[in-house]
């Protein structure tokens, strides 16, 4: 049974930064890809970023250039580093264990369907 615990969210002013964390247990972390999703009130859950087991990254167009997704296999943890936060980044952020498929010249992340409780990011003045 895989467990995921997201943390690091909070209330931040526009232009600020956050680092979210996701600690994974019940899985061979180093052998799996990881992804981040977010869900704002009234919206569907959307893909944000992912990283393969080999460290290759993939980002949604809406966050490319502002978000990075490093991983630390020794800590069974994946991070989401967010810079230049905007009000439209406000959402609950979730992580997921999964795999990657090559689609054309890019990666597509396929989650296993397990979620943690999420962590709330609120960007407001």
What can you tell me about this protein's structure?
By secondary structure, this protein is mainly β. The protein is 0% helix and 53% strand. The protein is built from no helices and 12 strands. Strands 2, 4, 5, 6, 10, 11 and 12 form a 7-stranded mixed sheet that branches. Strands 1, 3, 7, 8 and 9 form a 5-stranded antiparallel sheet that branches. The radius of gyration is 14 Å and the shape is globular. The termini are far apart. The relative contact order is 0.31. The mean pLDDT is 95.
What keywords describe this structure?
globular, five-stranded antiparallel beta sheet, seven-stranded mixed beta sheet, 125 residues, mainly beta
Strand-residue fraction? over 45%
| Overall form | globular
Question: Helical proportion?
Answer: under 10%
The averaged pLDDT comes out at: 95
Rg of Cα set: 14 Å
* End-to-end gap: 40 Å
Structural class: mainly beta
Can you tell me the residue ranges where pLDDT is under 50 for at least 5 consecutive residues?
none
Given the structure, what is the number of helices? 0
Q: Main β-sheet, in a few words?
A: 7 strands, mixed
Oligomer: single chain
Elements, N to C (H/E) = EEEEEEEEEEEE
The total count of strands amounts to 12
Summarize the structure.
Helices cover 0% and strands 53% of the residues. The protein has 125 residues and is mainly beta. The strands form two sheets. Strands 2, 4, 5, 6, 10, 11 and 12 form a seven-stranded mixed beta sheet that branches. Strands 1, 3, 7, 8 and 9 form a five-stranded antiparallel beta sheet that branches.
